Write a sequence for this structure.
């Protein structure tokens, strides 16, 4: 066997240019396929990031929160203790996680004359979370800084007929808090979607607690800014499991368990990606075939000569096969190394120069996180190798059908 | 798609706010805690009986103190309310206790509803959209009975009758604005004082029962119920109990008792 | 032939004719090259057309389902969806809408916030009053009935499946609907005649439909809060713009993109991501084309050796090879553009992709409210995208073989054993 292989190598080396061209074609196909899949992975990851940015990756709530008929049924009472546990477990598994406490109070908001029933969103967003929430909109005025302040959506502010500096009266009886308060409108946020703005009223968590439920929250959200790829989501699963164990009276869920219908969005690009991938690989196939076309014609002539010199079919085919396999594998290895190198280099983020401003205008993260699955790498390699092999072996088969003399004179 | 988890996660249905419900209930009970008049002959005809019963539900002007206890699971809350009403369209309800809620008040003027909270320092008008958003509950009283629509919306039949009580079965007409399948209204004979009101769903099950008891006789012989109990018969049902402790009937509260000032500061009368 | 070339073959036009003839002589090789360039062009056009069309479809289909292809409301209503901002009049606005060619149907709607009450629970929803026949021509919701039937007249209501479950009401039962109209509180008893089962969670959880007359009673208005217009996919923006010109100041027409609100963010993000993928694709296509040219040149080493031996200068040979590559690429590009755009236009006019995708991804598509209508986008800018690739490839091709050709030694070349 070793003799066959070393013979094959010598043959390939003698035909340096042809070998390089074929191996190069395979390498290029694999490299580009891997890069292409990596980009596809980046697109899916950006969907994942968008889906997890509003509610966080893991949430802790009271059990049965979906069917609750009153505010009390959804309250986590010993909020400080629970928060400590959540922060501890989150820090164990994540780098710099952000834990947000949320209390939504159904209330009647009123300006001087007009009023609306709107849930007041009490939160304690850390700066990074706040940036993301505000990033997609325009904030007039400023965000909450002191107690007794409120930020409203632009549509809501105009429905209530209030402007910056005006008082907004909030009436939320029935809880254990004060039940009523007046806040200063310090910020008006334009989210480019009136139907969202009309239900947007933000206060600090402390203010909401004083209003309806002292020291209580409705949920804790864990925002993990380091989880940027779908494949990282297993960490969220683990965290939810650990929180469930440590907090048996409460329910810890991943973002997908909170809203299972979101899973459909992760798959939403599949049909398109599939069709595009088919086109990509036809192009790849063309590339390989075209490159190998050269050798095809020559090979037929060569086989004619070899046949006329007496070499048997099987030996020749065996030779060809060995050479081709060696060639394609070499090309595949080089291509894979290059492709994976590209994906690895940009795994932690690829920023297209000049696009940051465009992304920022939508409040989006301008970084693309490439990722690829082993199955995709395998597919790329197999496809390229298989195509090249077929292209190499076909002339051998063709030549074996011809009389040696005809083969020797074969013209394209 | 706005698969924002905030937006799709259910904010509770109906946004029930217990204290407001309590206030509304008190208001409506007040309108309907009427006087059972005299011992006139009880007719045989269901419609005629119904007319008399509905009449009895209408009181004149009144002033009362109400102690209301709301029980849900293991949570019990007790409120003391002071109610002034002109018997038809206007009522003022103020919370006297517990101290945390004291000073909150509720003014009904025809179709308008105003709320006041001392912490807020001002009165708020409940907006049309706020009202329809479920800001108010209305399942604690005779709400389905209050008004002329009863006779238009229901078909009445005598279901049971003996020497001391008569029970009417009220079947809502197809377009009646009520979700119930049947109401069973029991009154005493001969004065047709309301004793019990049972609400049935459209599957034959009772879902709510309102019981009136502890009738007190006033100076002029009329009997007035002073204890109301509403039991929610569904799975996670609770109970609301109301006791009239201090009642003056047939009075005419002055107009100034139904103003914004009265809402904020009370009405001395 | 040394030292003297025919006059007609001198200069650039002459060179081009030479290159052309040379191409014609090697039909198979030329054809292969042209095919590769054409395919690269077609696939790039198709990549962009499909990507743009698909992404747009996903987001716009949501807006179409929850809103309408084109919606006419007062500007105040757009900012604050409350019945108090209803349309002042209907007939003139409907007439203006019908005057637009692409508007296929006009359906008035009354949206009003209400409280639904069953014997067991109550919940607040946004109720929609519709005219049943008109509405079924504008929206697919009426067709998504699971149990029962659609609303046909007053006194009837249809709820999303999940919503009906939440308040526990069965088909045939009556529920109470409370609203606070502009004229005071109002209430109706309505019979549940059907439940909507669309497979789309937000629809099944929040849909409540009644006859428009009932909604008008509840809202206390006589006109409508909006006019929903049926417009074919892809024509919404143009129709909205055209209609806007013909509407009085009191009303405005909003196309799908304007109704998308924050959905537009997601669409923008995915467009950019797709753009980057397109870059990889384009680069790859350029490499494929270059390789084809390189191969084609390499095949003719012997032939070049002969030509050089017969006296052709290296420079002329290099120029001819370059020109051949450019010409073949241009032909391929032209063919690719024609076939590619024909394909795109066909798939944009005729719903070819829909049934294709529905076969494999039917559940996914219906969950995304995409239905079975998927079209490609056709934009002029694709010419530039594809052209850039071809130029890149041509450059690559020119630089490599031409330089190689320049270094050929005739005798060795003629003997090239490849």
């Amino acid at each position: 066997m070793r003799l066959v292989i070393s013979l094959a190598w010598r043959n390939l080396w003698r035909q340096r240019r042809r070998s390089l061209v074929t191996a190069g074609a395979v390498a290029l196909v694999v490299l580009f396929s891997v890069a292409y899949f990596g980009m596809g992975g980046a697109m899916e990851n950006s969907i994942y990031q968008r889906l997890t940015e509003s509610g966080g990756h893991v949430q802790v709530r009271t059990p049965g929160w979906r069917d609750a008929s009153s505010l009390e049924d959804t309250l986590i009472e010993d909020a400080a203790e629970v928060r400590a546990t959540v922060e501890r477990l989150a820090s164990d598994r994540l780098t710099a996680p952000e834990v947000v406490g949320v209390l939504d109070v159904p209330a009647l908001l009123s300006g001087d004359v007009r009023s609306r029933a709107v849930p007041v969103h009490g939160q304690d967003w850390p700066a990074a979370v706040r940036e993301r929430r505000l990033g997609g909109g325009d904030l007039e005025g400023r965000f909450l800084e002191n107690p007794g302040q409120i930020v409203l959506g632009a549509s809501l502010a105009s429905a209530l007929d209030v402007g910056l500096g005006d008082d907004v009266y909030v009436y939320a009886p029935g809880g254990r808090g004060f039940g009523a308060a007046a806040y200063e409108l310090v910020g008006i946020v334009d989210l480019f979607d009136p139907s969202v703005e009309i239900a947007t009223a933000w206060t600090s968590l402390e203010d909401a607690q004083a209003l309806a439920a002292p020291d209580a929250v409705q949920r804790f959200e864990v925002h993990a800014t380091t989880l940027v790829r779908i494949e990282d989501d297993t960490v969220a699963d683990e965290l939810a499991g650990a929180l469930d164990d440590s907090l048996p009276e409460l329910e810890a869920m991943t973002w997908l368990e909170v809203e299972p219908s979101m899973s459909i969005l992760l798959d939403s690009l599949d049909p398109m990606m599939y069709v595009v991938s088919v086109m990509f690989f036809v192009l790849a196939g063309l590339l390989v075939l075209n490159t190998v076309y050269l050798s095809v014609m020559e090979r037929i002539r060569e086989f004619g000569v070899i046949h006329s010199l007496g070499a048997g079919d099987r030996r020749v085919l065996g030779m060809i096969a060995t050479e081709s396999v060696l060639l394609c594998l070499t090309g595949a290895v080089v291509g894979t190394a290059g492709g994976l190198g590209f994906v690895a280099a940009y795994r932690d983020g690829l920023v297209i120069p000049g696009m940051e401003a465009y992304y920022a205008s939508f409040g989006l993260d301008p970084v693309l996180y490439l990722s690829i699955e082993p199955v995709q790498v395998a597919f790329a390699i197999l496809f390229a190798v298989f195509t090249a092999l077929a292209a190499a072996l076909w002339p051998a088969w063709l030549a074996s059908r011809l009389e040696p003399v005809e083969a020797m004179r074969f013209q394209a | 798609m706005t698969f924002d988890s905030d937006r799709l996660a259910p904010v509770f249905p109906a946004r029930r706010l217990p204290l407001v419900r309590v206030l509304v209930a008190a208001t409506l009970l007040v309108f309907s805690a009427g006087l059972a008049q005299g011992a006139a002959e009880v007719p045989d005809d269901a419609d005629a009986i119904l007319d008399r019963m509905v009449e009895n539900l209408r009181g004149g002007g009144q002033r009362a103190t109400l102690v209301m206890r709301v029980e849900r699971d293991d949570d019990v809350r007790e409120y003391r309310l002071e109610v002034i009403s002109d018997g038809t369209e206007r009522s003022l309800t103020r919370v006297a206790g517990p101290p945390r809620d004291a000073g909150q008040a509720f003014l009904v003027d025809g179709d308008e509803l105003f709320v006041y909270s001392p912490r807020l320092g001002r009165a708020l008008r409940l907006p049309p959209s706020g009202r329809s958003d479920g800001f108010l509950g209305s399942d604690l009283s005779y709400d389905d009975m209050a008004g002329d629509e009863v006779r238009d919306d229901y078909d009445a039949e005598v279901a049971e009758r003996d020497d001391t009580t008569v029970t009417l079965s009220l079947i809502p007409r197809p377009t009646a604005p009520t979700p119930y399948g049947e109401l069973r209204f029991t009154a005493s004979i001969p004065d047709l004082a309301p004793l019990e009101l049972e609400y049935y769903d459209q599957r034959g099950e009772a879902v709510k029962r309102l019981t009136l008891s502890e009738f007190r006789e006033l100076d002029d012989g009329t009997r007035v119920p002073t204890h109301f109990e509403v039991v929610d018969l569904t799975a996670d049902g609770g109970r609301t109990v109301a006791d009239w402790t201090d009642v003056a009937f047939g009075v005419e509260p002055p107009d100034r008792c139904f103003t914004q000032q009265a809402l904020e500061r009370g009405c001395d009368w | 032939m040394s030292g003297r070339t025919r006059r007609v073959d001198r200069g650039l036009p002459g060179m081009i004719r030479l290159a052309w003839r040379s191409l014609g002589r090697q039909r198979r090789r030329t054809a292969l090259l042209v095919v590769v360039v054409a395919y690269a062009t077609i696939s790039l056009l198709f990549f962009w057309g499909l990507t743009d069309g698909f992404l747009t479809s996903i987001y716009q289909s949501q807006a179409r389902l929850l809103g309408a292809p084109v919606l006419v409301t007062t500007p105040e209503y757009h900012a604050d969806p409350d019945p108090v901002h209803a349309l002042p009049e209907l007939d003139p606005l409907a007439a203006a809408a019908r005057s637009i060619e692409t508007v296929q149907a006009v359906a008035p709607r009354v949206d009003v916030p209400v409280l639904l009450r069953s014997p067991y629970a109550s919940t607040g929803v946004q109720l929609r009053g519709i005219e049943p026949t008109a509405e079924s021509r504008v929206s697919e919701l009426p067709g998504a009935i699971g149990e029962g039937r659609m609303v046909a007249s007053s006194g009837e209501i249809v709820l999303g499946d999940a919503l009906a479950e939440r308040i526990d009401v069965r088909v045939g039962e009556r529920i109470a609907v409370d609203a606070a109209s502009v004229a005071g509180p109002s209430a109706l008893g309505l019979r549940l005649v059907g439940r909507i089962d669309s497979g789309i969670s937000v629809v099944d959880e929040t849909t409540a439909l009644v006859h428009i007359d009932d909604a008008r009673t509840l809202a206390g208005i006589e006109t409508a809060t909006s006019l929903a217009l049926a417009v074919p996919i892809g024509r919404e923006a143009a129709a909205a713009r055209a209609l806007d010109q013909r509407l009085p100041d009191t009303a405005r027409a909003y196309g799908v993109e304007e109704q998308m609100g924050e959905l537009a963010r997601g669409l923008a993000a995915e467009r950019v991501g797709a753009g980057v993928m397109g870059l990889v694709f384009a680069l790859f296509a350029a490499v494929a084309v270059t390789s084809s040219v390189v191969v084609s040149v390499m095949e003719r080493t012997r032939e070049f050796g002969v030509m050089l031996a017969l006296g052709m200068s290296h420079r002329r040979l290099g120029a001819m090879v370059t020109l051949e590559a450019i010409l073949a690429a241009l032909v391929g590009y032209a063919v690719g553009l024609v076939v590619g755009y024909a394909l795109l236009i066909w798939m944009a006019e005729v719903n070819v992709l829909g049934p294709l995708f529905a076969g494999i991804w039917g559940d996914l598509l219906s969950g995304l409210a995409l239905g079975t209508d998927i079209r490609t986008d056709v934009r002029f800018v694709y010419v530039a995208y594809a052209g850039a690739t071809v130029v890149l490839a041509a450059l690559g091709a020119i630089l490599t073989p031409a330089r190689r050709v320049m270094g050929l030694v005739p005798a060795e070349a003629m003997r090239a054993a490849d």
